[in-house]
Amino acid sequence: MQFRSGAVGDIPAIAAIERASALRFLDIGMVEIANDDPTPDAVLLERIGQDRLFVAVDAKPIAFVIFGLVDDQLYIEQIDVDPEYTGKRIGAALIGLVEEQARKEGRQGLLLSTFRDVPWNAPYYRRLGFTDIVDAALSPALLQIRQEHIERGLDETRRVFMRKPLILDSAANQR
Description:
The protein has helices spanning 11-22, 31-34, 41-49, 90-105, 122-127, 140-151, 170-173, and strands at 2-5, 53-57, 61-70, 73-81, 109-115, 131-133, 159-165. Strands 1-2-3-4-5-7-6 form a 7-stranded mixed beta sheet. By secondary structure, it is of the alpha+beta class. Helix 4 links the parallel strand 4 (73-81) and strand 5. The chain contains 7 helices and 7 strands, in the order E-H-H-H-E-E-E-H-E-H-E-H-E-H. The protein is 36% helix and 26% strand. It is globular. 28% of the residues are buried.
């Protein structure tokens, strides 16, 4: 298996991974999430152009992470692993690549928003070093993301923003 930046040719596979991964939500009664549309091609093309999409490949793409910049930190917008490959720490490796990118750019941390009680969401990210951000501490940019989620029909009462602070080496801080 290899990890690399995403390419335009990966878009159909990314959509298929996202759809397959979303089906896990059927098992916990979250039908609306399981039936949600995958990330629009236009967003994927934008992230590819910004080098903000990484894929894991095992003969074909099997996992991906999309991220952007929010509050001078890298914000993980979407991460999915083909269900046939779960439990192999591929998601953790992809997050590690985003963390490495953040360090190269001198960013102070990683951000994401996820479901609070879904086992492969917030509890998983906590094991990777993310901590919850209390609502009172949400920045205007994160509040805007919350509003976008609400407009998409997500139940924000079930979700939480999380942060993983990064300790930067002195060379990165001297830029």
